[in-house]
Amino acid sequence: MELRINRRSLIAAGVAGALAASSFAFLRPAAPSASSHREAPLISGDPRNDNTDVYAFVSPDKQDTVTLIANWIPFEEPNGGPNFYFFDTNSRYNIKIDNDGDAKPDVTYQWTFTNVDKRGNSTFLYNNGPVTSLNDKNLLFKQKYTLKRITAKGATTIGTGIVAPSNTGPASMPDYAKLRAEAVDGIKGGGKQFAGQSDEAFFLDLRVFDLLYGGNLSEVGQDTTRGYNVHTLAVQVPKKEIALKGDVSRNPVVGIWSTTDKWSPKGYVQVSRLGQPLVNEVVVPAGLKDAFNSLSPDKDAGIPAVVKKVTHPEVPMLLEGIYGLKAPKTPRNDLVEIFLTGIAKKNGPIKADLNSQILNKDAGKLRPSEMLRLNMSVPVTANPNRLGVLAGDLQGFPNGRRLGDDVVDIALQAMAGAAQTGQLVQALAAGDKVDRNDVPFLTTFPYIPDPSNTAVNQP
Fold first, then answer.
1. Among 75, 277, 294, 426, which has the highest number of CB atoms less than 10 A from its own CB?
2. What is the spatial distance between Cα 436 and Cα 445, in angstroms, rounded to a whole number?
3. What is the pLDDT of residue 287?
4. Cα-flanking dihedrals φ and ψ of residue 298, to 5°?
């Protein structure tokens, strides 16, 4: 597969979906919740169903596999007891894969949970002594789960397991890494599974919401999510398990997104959807943020407001008004390719073959849609660059998303028009000055670090 991309194309490819965040600004709300980091009013009251981030990448230490990670429950304070954090037993948590380009799921990994609660009326404690294993009698509350793989042929249970508990502290859990390692299990068909608490790996300065870093880039350099935790669901599966017809060499590109389905009197209702980062967080007005979460990707292209706000995005106008950086000319047809179709020479103005399902030899007609797209044939980068494709690292964002990809800085360049000019905007070159996570990532599955057990507000 040809992967030659010139610098202009690299910069354009790196913008991903950030400018397209405004594409849903004029949709009407049709669901009761929203996704990402507390960006919508209703979901802030239902964090267990709030999907914060999705990651998808070829496993660096096992390159015949792909790792898919989705996080829920934003801003978990490590000392948030005595009722620590857990998944919703009335919901289904999903990671979905489209491999033929029709924007409908061809493979779904679905988790459901049950509680094992031994506290009753006898105690308020999460644990009443040191916990040295997932089956330790001192662990009074835990969750079990079932993992299903769903295709057109039906649903198959491929794994069961115990959720790694919340990290309640060194006295309660003197060797938390051991507990977390116990929560990694094999699954039917090959691969691994994990469910449990993790470090919040999305690094950024959230003062972007104070008039874009204070209106003069003075409010940067503070990792707002430092020290917080999330709840992670992850699978590592052979590439053939998600490739179209199981043939990775002919069909290496997949689209990935996650959803939460919550039980209601009318049955399960989709209340959260997340693919590319920042889509439903940056621009969408509070009263309209919920609409995105009720949609499946195959509906995106059928809504004129979506396409219009991709070609005529709002965010660059904000940059012009606040910083005086002239907004790039519209229409932004390059963003249609990046956001809705994936990058391929046949799709639009970016003359490169990277991560559109149209590159799959057995794919049908492409349905434009928002999702995280990954070309599994791109080799793992020996020395990853945090700016991903923007810096010539073709394995990085927006070709999937690795834990270390600095999606905020990539998006900031996009907002300023780097995709139009083919040049980085030097006035914003420093970005938010949060270039990496505060703790290192793991070298093996599930890669996302162990959760913190130290209070965020410590001196």
1. 277
2. 19
3. 56
4. -70, -10
